[in-house]
Amino acid sequence: MLKHALSAMALVLAAGTALAQDQVVNLYSARHYNTDEALYTGFTKATGIKINRVDADDAGIIARLKAEGTASPADVILLVDAARLYRGEADGLFQPIRSKLLEDAIPANLRAQPTADGGIPWFGFSTRARVIVYDKTSIKKGDVDTYEKLASPQLKGKICIRSGSHPYNLSLFGAVTEHMGETRAEEWLRGVNANLARPPKGGDTDQIKAVASGECAVGVTNSYYLARLIRSSNPEDRKVAERVGVVFPNQDSWGTHLNIAGGAVAKHAKNRDNAIKLLEYLASPEAQNYFANGNNEWPAAKGVQFNNPALTAMSGGPFKSETIPIGAVGAHQLKVQQMLDRVGFQ
Ligand code: FE
Fold it and tell me: Hey, where are the domains in the chain?
């Protein structure tokens, strides 16, 4: 009797251990936002699945996945920017999935095009706008209220922007190419390049600071970098944010360019079900609010209520954003790089 009880207990323990071992998901994340911690604890709390996380930059993650091949422990991959997600898909690093929950939650233009059998290679989970900032003392909002105007001769020697080859700009320029066509887009790039105040350098925050300091009159940045300055505990940062005007371009035409941060199930995922659960969690209202409040991004999922005063302060409320498929934007990146080379845009 005792022997039976003990072996039953051993069985229960063994099952418990097996269960505990099974309940993991290995995440490779390129999200460089320390506020994401709440996302991951939220998932473990909701599902009991533990996350083993590897943080690296996008290039590091892609190199690692390629080096690991079929032996890769990665289950979920999070990358920032459509250009990088598109590359990951093109390099065969993702496993297309079917999930009714994700297909219902994430709008079709914020995820990859389905494959022939209907699987979706990756999903966007948060959006960021690529906005124009300007020196309120020398520039009128109407002078910079479209991306097209960045090429206007009136802005000669006034624009600061990070490298044209950075994925954030490859995606913006890819979107412009989608909207204007290749010939006009290249002319536009030539015009923007002719208007630069200095050779491209630094990150987006550096461009905002350069506008605030008067080094240039116009800059281009992802929205969350400006929101971060608005919400900063450092008064110097807040002063920078106060000094610049911000415009969400193309409200009267195709809308402001939106980019995404997104994720995918890894090609060789061993914990595939848990991987899908993690992606589904990222589309939940709770996780979407972490995106909105933590990194000052807009939720990608439909109908999520959120409250972030810095986002409202920047945009003044709802704004018109472009509706082209984000996958098409990524697909233009090689073409865009060739155009940049031809016009001498660094
Ligand atoms: Fe960033």
Answer: 23-126+260-310, 129-257+321-343
Strand 244-247 with 76-80, pairing: unpaired
Joined tokens for residue 179: 């909207």
Position 197, amino acid: A
Average pLDDT, the chain: 92
Could you read off the pLDDT of 109-148 as tens digits, one per residue? 999 999 999 999 999 999 999 999 999 999 999 999 999 9
Measured in Å, residue 251 CA sits from the centre of ligand 1 at: 24
Ligand 1 centre from 227 Cα, in Å?
A: 12
Q: Give the separation between CA 137 and CA 151, rounded to whole angstroms.
A: 20
Q: How far is the CA of 301 from the centre of ligand 1 (A)?
A: 20
The CATH architecture to which 23-126+260-310 belongs is 3-Layer(aba) Sandwich (3.40)
Contact of 123 with 111, CB cutoff 8 Å: yes
Distance 103 CA to ligand 1 centre (A): 26
CA 167 to ligand 1 center in whole angstroms: 10
CATH architecture for segment(s) 129-257+321-343: 3-Layer(aba) Sandwich (3.40)
Render pLDDT for 197-252 as a digit per residue (tens, 0 to 9).
Answer: 999 999 999 999 999 999 999 999 999 999 999 999 999 999 999 999 999 999 99
Q: Which pLDDT does position 80 carry in this prediction?
A: 92
